[in-house]
Amino acid sequence: MVQPLEEIVKHAASAFAVAHKEIVYWEGRSGFQEPSKDLAGAYRDAAMAVDAWLEARNIELKAIAEGETARRAVSDLEFQIAELRSALLHHETSIENEREKCELAIGEAGKMADVLETELVALTTRFCEPLRRKPELSPLFKELEGVAA
Hints:
Layout: H1 2-30, H2 37-132, H3 138-148
Helix pairs in contact: 1-2
């Protein structure tokens, strides 16, 4: 965006240089002794060239400032993206660590459940063994065995 404006500013500066040469030429001819229409025209042309140069330079400076603002915005966004990526990586790592802890806890709980189930079966067997000998409870034990099967 700025590069074409730089060319316009260079062209405007060159136009002023040409107009300035005309002033010098006509000043040399008049020797500060006699005014002339050509000298007045050269000064007017130079003034217009300076105005055009000034306008082009102001437009160029504005474009440079806008470019710098855009660069700062891009830089800020890149920084924010990098921070978000870092936070995401940290979050993913923390979730992975938490998942591993949960898997270990589930494994331990499964082992504990197996141990408790074994103990419960042993206790139930020990509790029920004297009761199996009673003839009045025999139909109930058969029913339980049928449900368990």
